[in-house]
Structure formats: structure tokens, C-alpha cells
Known about the structure:
CATH topology of the largest domain: Arginase, Chain A
Structural class: alpha/beta
Number of strands: 14
Mean pLDDT: 93
Strand content: 15-25%
Number of domains: 2
CATH architecture of the largest domain: 3-Layer(aba) Sandwich
Amino acid sequence: MIDLNQYFDPVCLDRPEIEQLTGSGAFPHNVTVNSGNEPLGDIAGYSVALVGVPDDRCSSNKGASYAPDAIRKNLYSFSRLPGKMKIIDLGNFKTGTGFEDTIAGLRDVIALLLSERVVPVIIGGTSALMPAIDRGLSSLRQPWSLVSVDSRVDFTAEKRDAHALNWMNDLIYRSGSKLSHLSSIGYQTYLTDQQVVNRFNRRHYDMIRIGEVRAAIHETEPLFRDATAALFDIGAVRQSDAPGTVLPSANGFYGEEVCLLSRYAGLSDNLKIFVLTEVNPVIDNRFQTSHLAAQLIWFFLEGFSQKQYEINYLSDPMNNRFTRYHVTLSDLEGEAIFIKSNITERWWIEVRDSSGEPHCLACSYDDYLMASRDQVPGRWTKAILRFGH
């Protein structure tokens, strides 16, 4: 087993000039911080680990390496989280001599955390770090799925050197990758190659433009519920709310909208990794972007502290926690089975793969209403195509 002390520098932050919250009411009350006074020990028993990665290589966003500490400074000024969730701040990852060394070392740390059932919250840095996420998750030898919240689809049709703007290429084409599904939330059409969108649609990925998200933001919650990892690129937020990034856009999510998406990620039963990238304090306006990034992390953790683990009980038809609804659709042989939680009011639909094995896919109440009107939900159709029918 690796020694985490060899991989991390301790957290070292100046005390803020203004401390509105102190003592048991402040965020650090929930957190064990690697201050360097004592070596890092056993991480078993922690729910979440904060991991700063101050590396902006393979990117045009020079200055993003300063983001982890700038975000921490704001995060530590917030209020404590509800409940008794145990969090450890491991500090800043010691970057490698070459960028591939950073990827390899971060992969090892992620694999260790996952093996201990600790959820890593990766504070970048840039999206060029995503191959390390893939390698860490793929080391579990199980299929995994990703939700990417970004204004762009970071994929190039032609072969190029690895970069923060084409990290999806590595995940999709690397032979050892176990990536099984990808959802792109909030992409902006005028920033995205339509041929790439068409290619992803043929793979049955979920491609959701920002206008579609904003028209029914609650419809994104099932995508987070089924995801293994979530990436939040701060460039998904409009420039007026998050100016501190190298590729800002006049349009994008409002701060409160992206915080809601982050909370959806925290509530997810399946999510194993949360990643936040592309914040650049060097070009920020009075640390506005760092402050919003810290809010994203806080809302993720707040959702995490209140999650209800339900997926392990879905397959039990006798469990009183759920109500099953059988809906006959004229375009289908047989019937669609919807499952509703009587506690959280979340919905799932049962989908069978090519071998007849049932899978419970997260869906929404609107999907059930559509089926009740004898219309096949698009979410169900994509799932059937994905599972090999």
C-alpha cells in the first residue's frame, strides 16, 4: 500500500483577515486537515478526501495551478456541514517531473482512496487531469460512467497531443479504459463541433445543451444519480459569475444553477469521484471565481451528507420502501416497470439487457407521465440501445 505522506504537501493557508464563522460553526470543524504536524495515517473511516492538484501543464490555462489553495481559503470560511460526515483534507498533490508522472501518481492515490471507499474531491488544476481519473476508476475493472458539466465538448476528431481541450479522446479510445457512458451537460452549440455531437449521439451518450438544462434543470438529476464520476469545468458558468478562467463565455449557467447541479452530484448513490477544474486565480476578479468554486464543493458535500442509499434495495420487489408501477406501452412488447421511492420520491425504470438481466436506470417523474400517455421516454430508448438491444 502506498504511503500518502510521500504524495502530498500539507495544507498551508494564511488566516483570513475577516472570520465570520469560527469554532464549531465553521467548515473546518468537519475536517481533519493535513497540517504537517502529524503524518497522514489510516484513511479508513473517512467518507471524503479533498485532494488539491496544483498542475496546469498540457493546458492553455496557465495560473490554474494556484486554484487549490485559493479555493480552500474560501471553503474554509464557510459554515460547517450538517451531520457527522468525516472529511480529510490530504493537502496538495506533489506534481511529477513530467505531466505523465502527475497522472500516474494521481491514479495511484485515487485507486487507494476508492479501495477504502473514500470519495476523492479533486480540486484542479485543469481538465487535462481527467486521464488519471479514468485510470483510477478503470483499475477497479468495472464499467464506469461520467457526467461532464462544461460549455464545450472536449474532444477532437483528429489526433492531437494530449491537452485539456481533448481529454475525452484519451478516455474514449484508450484500450484499458472502462468508461461505458458519458453525459455532457450544458454545452453551448456555438462552441461545439456539431460533428462531434453527432458522433457522441451515435454512441448513445447524453448530450444536453444549456438551453435544455435551464428549461428543466431537475431532469439532469437522474444523470448524476447513475454517474460514477462528475466533472465540473468552471467555464460552464457565465463570465459575469466566474471570470477567472482562460476561456470564459458571456453565456452559461448562473452560480445558483451550477451549485444545484453540484448538489445533485452529492446526492447520487453511485458517485465515487467529484472533480472541479479550470479555475484561474491569476486572472480572477477579487477571487469571485474561487469563491464560487468553493461553493460548488460545499454544496456537493452538503448533498453528500444527506444522501439516501437506495440502489441496493431496488431489486427487492417486497421492499416497502418502493412502489412499483407497471405501464403498458403500445410500441413495446410487454410492459415498462417504474419504481418510485416512497421516502425520497425519486424514480427508476427497469431496463433489461440483451441477456435478459434487469437494470434499474434512474429516471424522473416526467418519464413516468410520458409512459402513462403511451409515449416511450427518450431516456428509456437510449438505455435500451446502450444495453445492446
